[in-house]
Amino acid sequence: MEKKRITGAMLRVLEIVAGEGATAAQVAKELGIRVSAARKHLEKLELYGFVKHVFVRKGVGRPRKVYMVTEEGIEALPKIYGEMLVEIMDRLSALGLRNRIEDIVESMAIEIASKNRSGDLRESVEKLNSLGFMSSIKIDRDRIEVVSRNCPVLKAAKRHFDIFCTKFHTKAISMLANSYRVELAECIARGDLFCRHILLLSPQKSG
Predict the structure, then answer these.
(1) Using CA atoms, how far apart are residues 145 and 182, in angstroms rounded to an integer?
(2) 131, CA 20 to 30 Å: which among 67, 114, 123, 125?
(3) How does DSSP assign 169-206, residue by residue?
(4) What would the DSSP string read from start to end of 13-65?
(5) Quick check: pTM over 0.85?
(6) What pLDDT is attached to residue 206?
(7) Whole-angstrom distance, CA of residue 127 vs CA of residue 155
(8) Which fold has domain 8-76?
(9) Rounded to whole angstroms, how far apart are CA atoms 16 and 198?
(10) Whether the domain at 8-76 and the domain at 83-203 fall into the same CATH topology
(11) Using an 8 Å Cβ cutoff, are 206 and 184 in contact?
(12) Are 174 and 106 in contact (CB under 8 A)?
C-alpha cells in the first residue's frame, strides 16, 4: 500500500495533534481557521490512518472529541535520513565501532546544547526544534517536563535506542538544563506517543 504524503495545512494540523491530542476547536484556534475547516483536515487525516479520535469527559456536559496521533501519523511527521541512517548505523556497528559512535553522538549533543543554551530554559529547549523534535516545556509545582512530539530519527532510534535517545536527545536536554538530572520517562522510539523528559529540580552531583 502506497504511503500517503501530507504537506501544508494538513501537516501543520498533524503537528498540532501530535503528542497529547487536540480538539477541532483547538486546532482551529491554533491555525486561525474555522472549526469546520479544521474538522475537515482532521477527518481526512483520520481517513489516512494518521489520527484517531476518542471521547474525553471533563467535568459536566458532553464529552469532547479529541484527536490523537497514531503510529502511522508519527511516521508521517518530518524525519531526517531515514533508511539510509539506519543502514549506516548498522554497518558501523557491525565493524565494531559502536563505542566510537556513542562518543561522537554524545559530543555532538554537548556541542549543539552549548550553542543553543541561554538563560531561559524554555527558549533553549525550543531552539532544538530546528532539529525537528517539536519540543515544549511544562512547568509544574515540583518538576519540569520537556515534551517532544516528534522524533526526527525515529527509524534509527528504534534500532539504536541508547545512541539516539540517551547519548543524544537526553544528553542535549541535560546540558540545556545546566546539568540537572534528567530522566526519560516516555519515548516515541519505545512506542509512546511522545518523548517526555523529567527534569529533577536538584542538580546532579559533579564527578
Answers:
(1) 9
(2) 67
(3) IIHHHHHHTTTEEEEEEE-GGGT-SSEEEEEEEEEPPP
(4) HHHHHTTT-B-HHHHHHHHT--HHHHHHHHHHHHHHTSEEEEEE--SSSSPEE
(5) no
(6) 45
(7) 23
(8) Arc Repressor Mutant, subunit A (1.10.10)
(9) 22
(10) no
(11) no
(12) no
As given in the structure block, the three cell numbers for residue 55 are 471521547
pLDDT digits over 101-160, tens only? Answer: 999 999 999 998 888 887 788 888 887 787 888 888 888 777 789 999 889 888 889 989
Please give the pLDDT value at position 18. 87
CA 79 remoteness from chain centre: 11
Which pLDDT score is estimated for 146?
93
Q: Which residue has the cell 531515514?
A: 82
pLDDT < 70: residue spans in the chain:
1-5, 7, 79-81, 179, 201-207
Answer yes or no: are the C-beta atoms of 51 and 17 closer than 8 Å: yes
Cβ atoms < 10 Å from Cβ of 116: 18
Domain spans in the chain, listed from the N-terminal domain onward: 8-76, 83-203
DSSP strand pairing (64-69 vs 135-139): unpaired
CATH topology of domain 83-203: Muramoyl-pentapeptide Carboxypeptidase; domain 2 (3.30.1380)
